[in-house]
Amino acid sequence: MTLPSSFRTGLRRSLLAAAVGTAVSGMTFSSAAVAQERELLNSSYDIARELFAAINPEFQAWWEEEHGEEIAISQSHGGSSAQARAIMQGLRADVVTFNQVTDVQVLADAGLVAEDWQDAFENNASPYYSTTAFLVRKGNPKGIESWDDLVKEDVQMVFPNPKTSGNGRYTYLAAWGFAENEFDGDEEQIQDFMRTFLRNVAVFDTGGRGATTSFIERGIGDVLISFESEVNNIRSEYGSDDYEVVVPPVSILAEFPVAVVGENAERNGNSDLAQSYLEYLYSEDAQRQLAGFNYRVHNETVVAEFADQFPDTELFEVEDVFGSWEEAMENHFEGGALLDQLQRR
Amino acid sequence: MRRIGDAPIVRRLLIGAALLLSALFLLLPLVAIFAQAFSQGVAVFWANVSNTFTLHAIGLTLVIALMTIPICLVFGVALAWLVTRFSFPGRRILQTLIDIPFAVSPVVAGLIYLLLYGRNGWIGSWLDTHDIQLMFAWPGILMVTIFVTCPFVARELIPLMQAQGSREEEAAVTLGASGWTTFWRVTLPNIRWALLYGIILTNARAVGEFGAVSVVSGAIRGQTNTLPLHLEQLYQDYNAVGAFASAALLALIALLTLAAKAGLEWRASRREAFS
Amino acid sequence: MSQLAFWRSGSTRVLPGFGLSMGISVLFISLVLLLPITGLFGQLANLSLAEYFAIITEGRVVASYMVTIGAAAVAALVNAVFGLLLAWVLVRYEFPGKRLLDALMDLPFALPTAVAGITLATLYAGNGWVGNIIEPMGFQVAYTWVGIALAMAFTSIPFVVRTVQPVLEDLPAEVDEAAMSLGATDGVAFRRVIMPHLWPALVTGTGLAFVRSLGEFGAIIFIAGNMPYETEITALMIFVKLQEYDYAGASAIASVVLFVSLALLLAINIWQGRFVRRLHGGKG
């Protein structure tokens, strides 16, 4: 309040003008900008903003060096099924980088993504992967090491609702996969295990971020279950002194699938760019950045560099236990399927 | 002359209760937002606000609100005039129809626009073949914002104009004033504060709308990202300070419009006192 | 022409602008409101009647209706009392901080609902500013239906205040002067003289608050806990269907909310019309 008022008004005006100016120029001249400079739109899941904000400039520099062309990359982030829905309804994304196989499959079923998209890139078109892991409070007071520790009477869990979150679905499937192995496929025992498991949930947030808030900021529950990458990010974000990461000895492999949205890329004249962009994610540089964000990667040099960051753990795939994603969705998550039955009272 | 509730004890009791409850219920959340926004100091707050993408989001949000207001204003006044000054079959239904936006969950509101104007919708597919994109561009954001905010002006005016009745206007018209003159000279002065409330509410809601906009915007940073969407992304990305800085800006915009209203009221009351 | 003349004959013969205002209103309502709603019904056409009823009467969905309606009713009633009090204080009294209080009223609209939700959850959770005072006293707000009602009340309070306020402001001073001069006490005068003028606005505002609460999503999910059968709201059920790409299912549940809300609003409007007519001795 010590500033002279004319200065304050001036400052306010210029800031407002800058804000309105950028918006208006974006509204009217965006098509002109596209004509000068190709623009790639990457539609991604909601917690990947920082990740791609780090990778994109590297790719832009690499592309310019290789092809002598300056390009722009735009990002769109949201829940991965909301993103897929947007693309089906006309969001002109050139590539998708999702955290749910089913959400890319939906696009393939709609004919926007090639049917054999999983063969278009290495490792099932998943340049990086993760698994489901636990974040517990300091000293791990409830002694949680694996899935069967979670069904103890005094344990309370926080993980996102499998109905609304892919992250939550992985947690559910990981627990089921563990039980399937533990009880030798005895359906009744598995279901008992799962019923207790679901009953120990303290809060069902709709997404991973909400679950984190409940666990960290509201102090609810003894364990937060999420992707290993997330759990590590959260721990470094909120103080490594207060929380510990536990990677269970057996867990599920979580793929982060990528695909070119063929129709859009063609329409935007970006087919080559889109293909290169996704291939770039497999390059050593990109893999190193991904590992830095706590994702597990395939590049052997990088794997060796980050070896002590990712404990050895037995990872099973959805296909191993549930046949396919399609079957898993149908038998477990659709309305009236197993998840609903297990939660019924 | 004494008025109802003028006794000092009643007065103090009511004001006290109102202040206490508002402090707990409304002021505390506001304080919490600003506390979070400034939790890492003014410099971090400022860095978050002056970021290019935040500036763009602020600009887009304001532009959308500025475009929404006149449209809702014309519609609101026309509808309020229609249903309070004339009686005709279907009047109640018309009056109820404008409440549809209140009855529809914002996400569903976004969805119905998407289903109609999106690539697979029956208008959208035609637009697509003509390479016109409404959804996932600013026109889509404007459309759903209008949908969500259009009842406010009408809703403010209808009860008031109903309570006032139309005698003054009838008198003016009988004395030979034209329709527009009657409206400007008789109706408008009577409804101006309600109209202003309506605009403020429209503005507040337009600036803050998240659910419907999130469905049709595509949330492309630097292009179709409004401030509430930007905020959500920052929050998802564990940038809580950035998210609350945006929230603080939204709260500030609301408070500024209110301050503008208070200023206008004050100036008007002074002019009346002098004349 | 004769039909038009009949339409206009109701209450007013002299005022102009019927055609213009009718034109704008009908055009706007058709394009902005009704046309998109057809999309919703287009989705419903994909369902057979049996499927439709199966979706909307599913156990978990029905439980969510109960939670939503119960919490919305509580929120609306609280808002009716609180909103009336606030409107009264803002219109009738001068006191320091009045402008600020007035400004605060619109805050819930301006804040994106998700921010409201996160903030309320922060305040009322066991370790929040308010939560750590009231939870030891045995009141748990966050993650119970009380939290849901709280979030609903927060997002819809401006409806009551802003609907009642202008009517109260418009009430001529003579009205209560007359009542007071007849020697009535404050309470009686308020009930007998002021309330009849306020009823339409108060009921409308409360009704709008209730209806708004039925559809609210963003503010609630953060504080609700979202446990099946206990704290799941109907808007969440719609959201779940959308996540499953089940537009038809989402539209089915949304249509229930829409019908209930519209029926309620229509009832309020009809009642309000009657009431006003009675008040003005036959004038609408």
From TrEMBL, chain A:
Pfam family, one: SBP_bac_11
Primary site of residence: periplasm
Cell compartments where the protein resides: Periplasm
InterPro entries in alphabetical order: Thiosulph/SO4-bd
Record's keyword annotation contains Transmembrane: no
Keywords for the protein's UniProt record, in alphabetical order: Periplasm, Signal, Transport
Family per record: Belongs to the prokaryotic sulfate-binding protein family.
PANTHER family the UniProt entry points to: SULFATE-BINDING PROTEIN, THIOSULFATE-BINDING PROTEIN
Protein name listed in UniProt: Thiosulfate transporter subunit
Organism this protein belongs to: Vreelandella lutescens
UniProtKB/TrEMBL annotation, chain B:
UniProt-listed Gene3D superfamilies: MetI-like
InterPro entries: CysW_permease, MetI-like, MetI-like_sf, Sulph_transpt2
Membrane in keyword set: yes
SUPFAM superfamilies per the UniProt record, alphabetical: MetI-like
Record keywords: Membrane, Sulfate transport, Transmembrane, Transmembrane helix, Transport
Tree of life domain: Bacteria
Keyword Iron assigned: no
Domain ABC transmembrane type-1: 58-262
PROSITE patterns referenced in this protein's UniProt entry, alphabetically: ABC_TM1 (PS50928)
Transmembrane segments: 55-84, 96-116, 136-154, 194-220, 240-260
Places the protein is found: Cell membrane
UniProt cross-references to Pfam families, sorted A to Z: BPD_transp_1
Membrane topology: Multi-pass membrane protein
Record function comment: Part of the ABC transporter complex CysAWTP (TC 3.A.1.6.1) involved in sulfate/thiosulfate import. Probably responsible for the translocation of the substrate across the membrane.
Assembly with partners or alone: The complex is composed of two ATP-binding proteins (CysA), two transmembrane proteins (CysT and CysW) and a solute-binding protein (CysP).
Name the UniProt record assigns to this protein: Sulfate ABC transporter permease subunit CysW
Organism of origin: Vreelandella lutescens
Lineage, opening ranks: Bacteria, Pseudomonadati, Pseudomonadota, Gammaproteobacteria, Oceanospirillales
Gene: cysW
UniProtKB/TrEMBL annotation, chain C:
Record bears the keyword Electron transport: no
Name of the protein: Sulfate transport system permease protein CysT
Source superkingdom: Bacteria
Matching PANTHER family: SULFATE TRANSPORT SYSTEM PERMEASE PROTEIN, SULFATE TRANSPORT SYSTEM PERMEASE PROTEIN CYST
Listed InterPro entries: CysT_permease, MetI-like, MetI-like_sf, Sulph_transpt2
PROSITE patterns recorded: ABC_TM1
Domain ABC transmembrane type-1 residue range list: 65-268
Signal peptide per UniProt: none
Family: Belongs to the binding-protein-dependent transport system permease family. CysTW subfamily.
Gene3D superfamilies for this protein: MetI-like
Matching NCBIfam families: 3a0106s02 (TIGR00969), permease_CysT (TIGR02139)
Complexes and interactors: The complex is composed of two ATP-binding proteins (CysA), two transmembrane proteins (CysT and CysW) and a solute-binding protein (CysP).
Protein location: Cell membrane
Transmembrane segments annotated in the record for this chain: 20-42, 62-91, 103-125, 137-161, 247-271
Species lineage: Bacteria, Pseudomonadati, Pseudomonadota, Gammaproteobacteria, Oceanospirillales
Job description of the protein: Part of the ABC transporter complex CysAWTP (TC 3.A.1.6.1) involved in sulfate/thiosulfate import. Probably responsible for the translocation of the substrate across the membrane. Part of the ABC transporter complex (TC 3.A.1.6.1) involved in sulfate/thiosulfate import.
Membrane topology: Multi-pass membrane protein
Keywords for this protein: Membrane, Sulfate transport, Transmembrane, Transmembrane helix, Transport
